[in-house]
Amino acid sequence: MTRAVDSGIILIARLALSVLFLWSGVMKLLGYGAFVAYLQSKGVPFVQIAAPIATAVEVLGGLMLIVGFLIRPLGLVMAVYTIATAVLGHDFWNVADAALQHDMVIHFWKNVGIAGGFLLLCVTGAGGASIDAARAPRRPLL
Question: PANTHER family annotated for this entry (predicted)?
Answer without folding.
Answer: INNER MEMBRANE PROTEIN YPHA-RELATED, OXIDOREDUCTASE CATD-RELATED
